[in-house]
Amino acid sequence: MPWHRQPGGGGRAPGAGPTLGRVSDVAIELDGQYRALREEAGAARRERGVLVVRGQDAAEYLQGQLTNDIEVLEPGQGAYSALLDRKGKMQADMRVLRTADDVRIGLEPEALAVTLRHLTMYAIGRDVSVEDHTDELALISVVGPASSQLTGLPPLAAENDHAPAELDGIEATVVRTDLGLDLVVDASDADGALAAVEKRGVAPVSEDALEIVRVENGRPRFGREMTQETIPQEAGINERAVSFTKGCYIGQETVARLHYKGKPNRHLRGLRLSGPAEAGAVVTLGERELGKVGTAVLSPAHGAIALAILRREATPGDEVAVGGETSAEVVDLPFERCDTTGDLSVE
Length: 347
What we know:
Alpha-Beta Plaits; alpha+beta; six-stranded mixed β-sheet; 8 helices; 3 domains; 22% helix; single chain; Gyrase A, domain 2
């Protein structure tokens, strides 16, 4: 899944409110970026924590720590996975890439410290080293249906597959994503790699535009929808992140019991909002608090929409209150959207 950077601040003087012209310009610019992401491709540099796990026991060790099957991966393959505590609650989600020499983990920056501490502590007595390479590597995300065509990079068979590549003399690892591809390069080459893809016709885009596409596609993000109180099934990531055929791992008992015998108390849902909402806004049904908004965006295709993990009392079609002033319809994911010909399609 998916390596993020928060958008930078604007140029207005402190305390100055946005003028109508500025708001309109921002909306027009974001609409153009969105169109590029949906019709061709857009690119941005994104922040991501990076851990490299080495040693003869690396894959076997991670097999007992993470939710997905790591040992089955061949060099050039990858998997989406999670690190849990003993109660089955998420500590991090991550992309795991296996190479001939090591296993590379990419994760949200806010989950880096707890994951590094956990993997270092439990590696004692094994032929395993865990190294933080966050400052040495950078990631360029290229998103859109023409990602491979415009960049000239070879298409890969499955999400998280990866291969070495070169762009204008810059060495990179290209990784297939759900919506395009990622380029992992040396940090010193980040600007050059971004310039290289833009030269090939890929549009520069903002984090805001990328978040709209993520929300429309219904993919939760750790630190937004998913927190350290989330169980994988509640976030709807079991199919992508959890193996139910591998051996034991930390938190397995809770995850397996819920999968085979129980029903989660919460589910990832979409919200079609009547107006703007903020992340963290409380969602209620009558007097009952159901959860909080994880991410809210203003989509050129849908208007105001959001992702939230809500109590199971909220079912698709229900109308809920958001933040006390906004109403919303609960919907299944992913959001349907209209393409440029006006036809309705589903991601």
